[in-house]
Structure formats: C-alpha cells, structure tokens
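Q: For a teaching session next week I want to show students how multiple molecules come together into a single three-dimensional assembly. I've collected the sequence lines for a complex. Could you give me the predicted structure tokens for the whole thing so I can convert them for display?
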Amino acid sequence: MATPTPTRHRKRGHDPESVLSIAVGVFNERGYDGTSMEDLARALGVTKSAIYYHVPGKEQLLARALDRALDGLFELMADERAASGTAIERLEWVVRQSVRILVDRLPYVTLLLRVRGNSGTEQAALERRREFDRFIGRLVTEAAAEGDIRPDVDPALVTRLLFGAVTSISEWYQPARGASADDLADALLKMAFGGLRV
Amino acid sequence: MATPTPTRHRKRGHDPESVLSIAVGVFNERGYDGTSMEDLARALGVTKSAIYYHVPGKEQLLARALDRALDGLFELMADERAASGTAIERLEWVVRQSVRILVDRLPYVTLLLRVRGNSGTEQAALERRREFDRFIGRLVTEAAAEGDIRPDVDPALVTRLLFGAVTSISEWYQPARGASADDLADALLKMAFGGLRV
DNA sequence: GTCTACTGACCGAATGTTCGGTAAACACTT
DNA sequence: AAGTGTTTACCGAACATTCGGTCAGTAGAC
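A: Of course. Below is the structure for the complete assembly, covering every listed component.
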C-alpha cells in the first residue's frame, strides 16, 4: 500500500534514487576517486552507459549525496532548540541530534566526512561543513563562558575532540549490530560530559 | 656538521626518503587515489619518470608510508609500560603515547587512518591496524572489569568513541599552531576520563 | 506506434609505468 | 692538468590500459 503505482508505468529497474543510494555505498567502500563508473555499473547490475540514463554523471552523484548530508546538519542548526536554553543544554541537544543525523543518513554523512576538496563540488561541500563546525565551536565557547565546562581545557580543543568522537561513529558503526542512535549519544555524552572514571 | 658528505658523491636532488615525505604530503591533500604520478612529479619539481629512479612505483610509496605509521603503534604495544600496572593506568599511558605517535608521525598516521582496503597493500595495513584496535579493546574491557570505568557504558562503545577522538586529531591538528602532543593528550584525558562538566 | 530503460561500440583524455638517451659530477689513469 | 670511463639523476617520448562520457540502436511494456 505504501507505493502501489509510484509512477505511471515502469519496466522494473533503476531510478535516480536507487542509483544514488547504491553508488554512495560503493563510494564508501572504495573511496570516491577509487570508484570507476564500471564499478558502479557492476554494483547496479547494468552497463556503464545505463547509468547516464538516470544521472548526469559521477560528480553529480557526489554532489547529491553530499547535499543530503549537509541539508540534515543545516536543518539542525536552524531548529529553535539549538537557540534556546543555556549553552551547555543546547550543546548537549546538538550533539544528540548530530548523532541521530549521522545514523539516519549514515552513508551520506560518511561520504561527506571524507571529502578533501579535490573539485569544485567538494570544495563547496567543505565550506558548508566548516560553517557547521563554526556553529559548534561557538556553542562550546559560550558554554565555557557560562561556567558550565571545566575551565582548564581550551574550548577550541574540546570542540574538535568532542566532535572527533562524534564523526568517528561513521567509521565503525554498524546499524545491524544492536546500538541505536540514542544508545550512541548516551554513551558519548556520559563519557564526554560526565567522565569515564568512577 | 650533521651531514657533511652523506654518501660519496651526489649531484643534489632527491632520494627515496625525500620522495616519500613529499609524496605522503600530496597523498594527504588529494587522497591516494586522487593523486597521479604527474601530481607527485609537480610537487617534487621533476618529471614523472624521474620518480621511478628513486622508488619502484606508486603503491610502494603507499606501503612504505603505512609501515612507518604501523611500526610506531606496534612498538607502543610491545613496550613494557603497556603491560604493567592497573588496566586504567595502562590505558591512560597508551592513549597518551598514541597521541604522541600520531603527532610525531602525523602525515603517515593520517594516511593510514584513511586506508579502505582497495589493494593488497591496503588490506595488509588494515589487518595490522585492526590488531592494534583489538589491543585497545582488551585494555578498556580489563579496566571495566577492574571497576575503574563507569559500569553504565558498553566497553566496546567506549573503546570506539575514545579512540575516535584520538584519531580525529589527524584531521584537524596543525603543529605550527601551538598545542603540543602533551597538550592534546591532557585535554583528551581530562574530557574522556574526568568529564567536561564542572 | 510511442516511450522507457537499457546495450554495445566507441571517443579522447588521463593513468601508471618503461625505455633510450644524456648532461653533469665524480674516480682513475697518465 | 688533461683525458677517459663510470655513475648519478634526470628528461622526453612512448606504452598499454583505464577513465568518464557519448551515441545510435533496440527489446519490451504500454
């Protein structure tokens, strides 16, 4: 009942969406530059040229995937819960939501986190990502100014390390194996905010 | 006085060592697969073919660089200080030393952390890296069993998150800009072991 | 008969690597 | 000091292969 007749008529096969999701999977396995259109064709079960019927090219696939990750992060920034309450409360909420977006859009965020700026597409994505990083940096600095973060550590360092732990999730998390986004966020916040030592 | 006449006679130019260090720099900028031998030649100030006078090929450059990172981590595991004392003390020491190796061999470790297993060389490096990861996992589990880590978080999750923060350092650390390896380790251990909240 | 979703043949450019040649620096003899 | 031979460190051209991408043609659903 969910999608009885999605479009008028279809011969069964691929559409831009399924091509994208499979392509992103291969990009994450072999790296974007290490993936050839031949690799994608093999994963899709069609020939190289069939891909160009659905999408304009390799770099457009990358651009669409990166936007999917970045749009999630920017929606997070625009949420009013990221702007009300004490800085430490907002920071905790933002960390939790970041983990949720990372888990919900795992392959897309994973791809984003590996971008190095080799093309215009990648540089544009990097610039949007840096905007998110600056947003986090401001939150940590505010929380420190409000006296809710221990004063003997540099806020800039804390920002990097805290979100280093968050982004590392994309490198080892396996959704099939139990833990939910909330489990991850709980463990992360307990460690980073409360400390591991008993 | 350091190197008056390193070898008998030399016309000034490159050697395998300088080629490696420059190549690793370019690999980290553009990614290994995104780097062509032409890119390397440009960075070295020679033509493509000159590179093959000093090193056997692109993949050998990668292999040598990855070994340089992995050898550091394996020396750490073999140190007796990683085997004496309580588990939490050993864990703290290993985290601190890992940060030091990461900083000392920054470009090599950075390259290692981005390997995805695209070739035999990469798969071999990944396997050695996993051995180090298992070593860390055992340390955390022991510390939890000895009651020195809060019991309300999964040791496997803690391992990943803690070393996620460590490895993230390679993605943002700039040696020129102040912080030393000890500064990084101090901030990391304060956050992860003591907690950020005052 | 028309549209969808492809295939297969092909293109020019870029890839990692090899090879023949060579100018300069050195060692050795005279 | 001059001449000879060898080694070092490279260049330029070419190699086969792979790359991302194009295009004419077509089988099958409507």
